[in-house]
Amino acid sequence: MPLIDRDDCALVIIDVQTDFYPPRRLDVDRQRFQDMVRRIAWITSVADRLEIPVVVTEEDPAAGGHTVPEIREVLPAKAVTLPKNAFAVWDNPDIAAAIEATGRTTMILVGIETDICVAHSAIQLHHAGKRVAVVDDAAYSPGPAHERGLRRLAGRGIETLSTKELFYDWVRTIQDAEAFHDTHADLAVPPGVRL
Question: Which pLDDT value is given to residue 23?
Answer without folding.
Answer: 87
